[in-house]
Amino acid sequence: MIALPAPKAEILARREEIIVALTALVPGDGVIAEGIRMKPYETDGLAAYRQMPLAVVLPSTTEQVAAVLRYCHEQGIRVVPRGAGTSLSGGALPLADAVVIGLMRLNAIHEINYADRYAVVGAGVTNIGITKAVEADGFFYAPDPSSQLACMIGGNVMMNSGGAHCLKYGVTANNLLGVKFVTIEGEVLEIGGTYLDAAGYDWLGLITGSEGQLGIVTEVTVRILRSAEGARAMLAAFNSIEIAGAAVDAIIGSGIIPVALEFMDKPCIHACEAFAHAGYPLDAEAMLIIEVEGSIAEQDALLARIKDICARFDPISLKVAETAEQSLAIWKGRKGAFGAVGRISPDYLCMDGTIPTSELPRVLRRIGEMSEQYGLKVANVFHAGDGNLHPLIMFDANDADSFHRAEAFGADILKLCVEVGGCLTGEHGVGVEKRDLMTVQFQPHELTQQRAIKSAFDPDWLLNPAKVFPLQGALSPALAAE
Amino acid sequence: MSAMIAPVDEAGIIAAVQAARAAREPLAIEGQGSKRGMLRPVQAARSLSTRGLTGVTLYRPAELIISARAGTPLAEIEATLAEKGQQLIAESPYLNGVFGTTAPPSIGGVVAANLSGPRRITWGATRDHVMGLRFINGAGEAIRSGGRVLKNVTGLDLCKLLSGSYGTLGVITEVTLKVLPAPETSATLLIETPDLASAVAALSAGLGSPFGVSAATALPVKDHVIAAVRLEDFAASVAYRMEKLRGVLGSLGTQRVMEDAESRAFWRGVREVEPLQVVPDEAIWRVSVRPSAGPQIAAAASAIGGRVMLDWGGGLVWIAASPSSANHMLISEAAHTQGGAAMLFRAPESLRLAVPVLPEEAAPLAKIGARVKEALDPGGLFNPGHIRAA
Q1: Nearest chain B CA: its distance from A32 CA (Å)
Q2: pLDDT tens-digit series, residues A273-300
Q3: What is the ipTM of this complex?
Q4: A190 touches chain B (CB under 8 A)
Q5: Quick check: is A193 in a domain?
Q6: How far is the C-alpha of A303 from the C-alpha of A260, rounded, in Å?
Q7: Using one digit for the tens of pLDDT, what is the confidence trace for A209-263?
Q8: Mind telling me how many Å the CA of B209 is from chain A's nearest CA?
Q9: Taking CB atoms and an 8 Å limit, are A194 and B341 in contact across chains?
């Protein structure tokens, strides 16, 4: 288990007084303090970790967020920002002495501008909510994390979320124009705006993906894009992981950039097929889902090219969707992959390392060996075009030993990712989950440099403590482990 | 001209920074010097150049990744990529014409200035494609951020902070960029429109179409304005999409299509701000606003006798006018009023010293900014006064 810092006793002792003060700042039903009602906030998508917070505040305006932060800063109270709580890395895990600031009530869409192709939305608007608001007019918001039905744009900004379509459209950072940003001191700053490449330092780029370490985002200006005329998928299944990897290289090398290029290994294919009956080939060792965009004729031309390329790699199965319905069927298994694995195992940990794609066969072989060593099954599903792996390690949370082995297995996978030239996390964030592995990727002085920048925004380290940076190390004051 | 130190490796850069730190002497940081004359002049006895750090260090076409030492000429990177049918995504400009220099731009300089060309409107800025970099901080330490993979959210994103920091936060020694396949062909639709507002409306219609427009510029010519939108893709797609686009934009003015070679030359010109035909004694401003506000910025520029060209769908307004504080104030005010920002891109040294070349930041942000600068460059060694008066 990962250690959390000791709570500040003087803050715990002043709980009642703090709740009264917060209630004055966010009146009505804006403060949650009873245990039973705080329960939903004790964990996030990394459900193995749970901790009840001091209190939960649900502000409805940027001004309320600023007032709460100003108060917490004055009083030395730690804060944990929270969107929908879908973080898979424990990014929204509370601390016993921390106030959780939930942003779900900042859920208004303030402006949609098609001529200039942007939308201004509250941090609590869901990712899919943005696309829903503009799709009737033919537009969409590009980043599409798997949790897009629930996850909120404020959380997407904080974690720099990705999705299946990043290869063409980029991640959250590439689709933002500006944010309204509240500092720990309660100052409200406009970062960026409705235009490209704001002058001066790229604060927007630094804030994006900062996991709540620098401040709280309450409003986001996103780029919206016109949807392509259409999109269609194909499926290609191969005899080995190596061959599928070579096919991916050949597709990219041909000059085609598919909008999505997803990879599943045999255990994942089986889990998904049992769940979704998508018609996946059960004898394949590896399968690709490849999606292209454009008019019907353009889709036909691109899919024909990709089919020709795949045909050179002795495929077991090649299935090009003829219709939008067939395309949906191909995607159905993939989109349900996490749920499908949840059906065959009581619990799973979802890893998120990225590797250079040329290392794919070697890394997947090693993961297979580790799976036997740890005695835990693993299913691999990932974004093949960009090397972002999602090994799903299956375990039983009721068996403490099984959980510890799963955590150790996951850590070994991430170390392997770094060893082959990749990184700990491609899109889920470091959070609490990968915090202690940061020393694998970064040298001490590099972490000190990052901490110094964090300190420039949050000198007292009140913002989302115990995440991202290992507790021990220079410049992490007052975060001694319990 | 200050004395230049130009080490041939990163260890030499570190040694130079440590020596400067020990002597408490600031350094003017530069690459090849192709953009010397940009921003405020740096008062430093010595300059530290990365021009000696050259060469592609890693290129994996199938992984869409290239790494190079900071001083590597942009043209060398482009040539390396072209051999494998790939290209830099942001269409980074050279700007030798703008700055009256002959030195080749370095890839480190392109990143340090976050300079992007016409493709930026659809495919992102240079900073969007910086997957990793190495830099030397003011303590003389080598710091890595990012890596050599396409998706990475591990730790704070210092790649973006350093991109566009103009050498004021660290000395970039190596960069890793995402690249993409070069398109099979390109073509550009020119539409003759009566005025800038109509031209920008045409660009918006193009960029808001499903046809993947990859660049959109508006060029005033005598009594009308040429709106131009570009398609880049496989030849069959470009042909199909051009027909569709001509239909969508048909009612907006007389049309002409430029095929591949002519189209490429045209956009090279737009990238280098050539259509503005700037004369040597004019100043150049670069204003970024939401595209539909571009015409208002242009109107403000016309009022002071300035000439304009618009890129990025109308949101990037290049202005050439006589270099005066009054003109700078007026353009900055117009940009601010429209919710955008103006940068004094080129001007005589006296003007660059007299006015803020970049807009001032709000006080609380400036305070944090000063602490971030202190965190990266505690001795204030790098490019003092380069982006704002000290």
Answers
A1: 31
A2: 998 888 999 999 999 999 999 999 999 9
A3: 0.98
A4: yes
A5: yes
A6: 13
A7: 999 999 999 999 999 999 999 999 999 999 999 999 999 999 998 999 999 999 9
A8: 6
A9: no
